[in-house]
Prior knowledge:
Blueprint: H1 6-17, H2 39-50, H3 54-73, E1 78-80, E2 84-91, E3 94-98, E4 103-107, E5 110-117, H4 119-126, H5 129-137
Antiparallel strand pairs: 1-2, 2-5, 3-4
Amino acid sequence: MARFHKRTAYRARAYAESGGFYCPDSYFFTPKYLPNVTKAEVIAEISQKTGIEKADVLMTVEAFFKVVKDSMTEGNNIYVRGFGSFVNKKRARKVARNISKNTSLIIEEHYIPSFKPSKTFVAKIKNSKKVKTTAAKA
C-alpha cells in the first residue's frame, strides 16, 4: 500500500466529503466539485431548451463537429464570433531523446488543433460567480 503524504490525505478527505471515491495510487481522478459535462448532457439540455427532438439535435451537433474536423483537416481555421476560434497551430521541428535507449529522435514540424476562446467568452467566465466558488473548493 502506498504511503500517504499530507497533500494526498487532504485530497482524499476532500474528495470523500464530496461524495466521490478515491484511490490513493491514482493521481488522475475527476472530483465531484469540478463537474464535467458530456455530449449527451449538452444534447439533452439543447433539446429541452429548444423543444427539438434529441435525435435531431444529435444529428446537428455531430454535423457541426464533422464540419469543424473536415475544415481543419483541409487547413482552414474556423472563427465563431462571441465564442472562439478553432485554429491549427504549427509545432516546429525538434530533437527528442529516448532516455532508455540513449538515442535521439527527430520530430518533424506538424500542426495540432487548438481552441482559443473569444474575449467576451473569457470575460464571462472570469465574472462567473459559480466558477469562482467551484475553483475555491479545489
